[in-house]
Amino acid sequence: MKRPLTFLLACMMVASLAACGENNTTGRSSSASAGTPGVSGSAGSGGSETPGMITVKTLNDAREEVEIEVPYDPQRIAVMDLAVLDILDNLGVGDRVVGVSKGSSIDYLQDYVTNDAIANLGTIKEADLEAVMACNPDVIFIGSRLAAQYNALSEIAPVVFLSIDAEVGVVKSTSDNAMNIATLFGLEHQVSGLMANYEARIAALQAFAEGKTAIVGIVNAGGFSVLGNDGRCSIIGVEIGFENIGVDASIDTATHGNEASFEFVVERNPDYIFAMDRDAAIGTEGAQLAAEVMDNELINMTAAAQNGHVIVLEQSNVWYTAEGGITALGIMLSDLERALLG
Predict the structure, then answer these.
(1) Do domains 3-163 and 198-340 have the same CATH topology?
(2) Whole-model pTM?
(3) What CA–CA distance (Å, rounded) separates 304 from 273?
(4) How many other C-beta atoms are found inside a 10 Å radius of the C-beta of residue 337?
(5) What is the pLDDT along the chain (342 residues), one digit of tens a residue?
């Protein structure tokens, strides 16, 4: 990082430390001992049994896996990723959150969005560096949308950048990320319990999906883009097991899918069509709903439509912006269970 940015951030720190000084300063103390896995060699001051720093795995700005040192049992947390905020909430350390990205409409995270004592740090796509600095965080959590600001944020505090690995799968990635986060607080023992009820639910959906084909896609601005098993909604093809016939496995669709014609969908003629409503997810005013877009002459020619198997994912905002959270995973499975299992 160039010196002018470092100097600017330092000046901002001096000027604004008091701005968030009274935000959520109380937090639960951890009972973990100095033998916690991944802990660095130095212990906390004053002879504390808990370590002062811990080594965790994260991605860097190039999306490469690296290890960094983070304060153990951090008391001031800045979060600019909804999946991570979900995990922190489930681990019971949400009272340590001093700043979040506040643009979300997701109902189970509204306590953080509407709390005036928690600072607004920008959006999940663009951080407000001055606001982050003012909160004086011990650690900063980001997702893939903020990868470009990784280095700038690292000038303020250690940055933990977590994402979903579609090859590993949404479920295992969520569990792995939750364990990584829990390690910072000595709460690893909680993760298995938080994830425990998902295995049987996924097994029931897998039994239903066996031998069935599907096209998965995003509806946006009246158009339809197909998704593979490499990004959003990959749980449908990877864990649940529908044969995704919308795209070739070698084609990258991870960001917003690949635009497809409705004629293409008719040609493939899947047993099921799953559609995420992006406009509804991000609150686009005046946009045509996905259910209306997909109810057209061509789509109605498919076996999926004729059998009532065109499924608009009910909680599209969760699928689109919060995939990778523990509560989010339960909601995504519920969407599929309602549509497929009744």
Answers:
(1) yes
(2) 0.84
(3) 6
(4) 14
(5) 444 444 444 444 444 444 454 444 333 333 333 233 333 333 333 444 556 999 999 999 999 999 999 999 999 999 999 999 999 999 999 999 999 999 888 999 999 999 999 999 999 999 999 999 999 999 999 999 999 999 999 999 999 999 999 889 999 999 999 999 999 999 999 999 999 999 999 999 999 999 999 999 999 989 999 998 888 899 999 999 999 998 865 555 555 567 788 999 999 999 999 999 999 998 888 889 999 999 999 999 999 999 999 999 999 999 999 999 999 999 999 999 999 998
Identify which of 84, 243, 50, 229 has the alpha carbon closest to the alpha carbon of residue 162: 84
Please name the residue that has the structure tokens 């049987």.
200
Q: Are strands 77-80 and 97-100 parallel, antiparallel or unpaired?
A: parallel
User: Is 3.40.50.720 the CATH classification of the domain at 3-163?
Assistant: no
Alpha carbons within 13 A on the beta-carbon side of 187: 24
* H helix intervals, the chain: 3-16, 82-91, 110-113, 129-134, 150-154, 170-183, 191-195, 198-209, 262-268, 278-282, 290-294, 303-306, 316-321, 326-340
DSSP 8-class letter at 237: T
Q: Using CA atoms, how far apart are residues 139 and 154, in angstroms rounded to an integer?
A: 9
Q: 130 Cβ partners below 8 Å, 6+ apart? A: 12, 16
C-alpha–C-alpha distance, residues 78 and 100, integer Å: 6
Q: How far apart are CA 127 and CA 133, in angstroms?
A: 11
Q: What residues form DSSP beta bridges with 226?
A: 217, 258
- Domain 198-340 sits in CATH at 3.40.50.1980
Sequence ranges of the domains in the chain: 3-163, 198-340
Exposed, middle or buried by CB within 10 Å (0-12, 13-18, 19+), for 154?
A: middle
Residue with tokens 């995003």: 218
Say if CB 123 and CB 79 are below 8 A apart.
no
> Rounded to 5 degrees, what angle do the CA atoms 213, 219, 225 make?
60
Q: What is the distance between the alpha carbons of residues 177 and 324, in angstroms, rounded to a whole number?
A: 8
Helices 82-91 and 170-183: crossing angle in degrees, nearest 10, is 60
